[in-house]
Amino acid sequence: MTAQPLREKILGTIIEKSMLKQRVFDNTFAVFNLLKDTLFEMASEMEDALEGKVDRRVRLEYRDRGKHEAQLQIASDILIFKMHTDIFQFDSNHIIWQNSYVQQDKANSYCGMIDIYDFLSDSFKDKRSADEGYLIGRIFINRERMFFVEGKRQSSMRAMNFGKEEIDRERLIAILEAAIYYAVNFDLLTPPYEQCKRVTVDQFNNKFDSSTFVTGKRLNYEFNVDDI
């Protein structure tokens, strides 16, 4: 006797959540395509601005890596932008739950996510597959195209401002410029001596093997996740 009402709840939840998540996905995918177009334009503009001012070996280049990935090479850095195909909810301790926009309607908290990673360009050029990249930012977009950003140098678009502005090209430019500025100032540090003082003959003889020597901007140093 009680099975039917519960089944109706199950079906109702499936319908409601699937429609919500599909809307969030469509918004996130549209924003990601706008991000790709914006990156391409920014790369062209910055490359023109650098013409004749830097060594020709300094590259500034956009590359489309598929439906859900894109990259921007800036000199010795490569920023990779990756859109997740899943829709996310936040854990109970996340600051987003203190936001009045989310408190008014829990559905507003369901978000798509675009990650921004910083790698060394030589890691890809030399096929050093064990080298490490760093998550320097991530963009969250919901069913109403409202957004916020977690990441380095993203000071004006944080969770407590969620629900106040829709994401658009102008705001994407601000996010991307902040990420690029952080990456070009995020310098490669010499690894701690204690981590490098011993090496086997096999490691040295196979130094070009991508799995032998790991390189990263902050390898064996603490990389804090706080917003600077």
Structure characterization notes:
The structure is a single chain. The chain has 228 residues and is an alpha+beta fold. 36% of the residues lie in helices and 18% in strands. The protein contains six helices and six strands; from the N terminus they run αβββαβαββααα. A six-stranded antiparallel sheet has the order 1-2-3-4-5-6. Helix 1 packs across helix 4 (169-184). The longest helix has 48 residues, at 3-50. The radius of gyration is 21 Å and the shape is globular. It starts with a helix and ends in a 23-residue tail after the last helix. Residues 219-223 have low confidence and may be disordered.
Task: Output the keywords.
228 residues; alpha+beta; six-stranded antiparallel sheet
Mean pLDDT: 84
Helix content: 25-40%
Task: Please summarize the sheet with the most strands.
Answer: 6 strands, antiparallel
Number of strands: 6
Determine the strand fraction and express it as a percent band. 15-25%
Overall form: globular
Summed up, what is this model?
The protein is built from six helices and six strands; from the N terminus they run αβββαβαββααα. It is α+β, with helices and mostly antiparallel strands and 228 residues long.
Outline the secondary-structure elements.
Layout: H1 3-50, E1 60-64, E2 69-74, E3 77-83, H2 100-104, E4 112-120, H3 121-125, E5 134-141, E6 147-151, H4 169-184, H5 193-196, H6 201-205
Antiparallel strand pairs: 1-2, 2-3, 3-4, 4-5, 5-6
Helix pairs in contact: 1-4
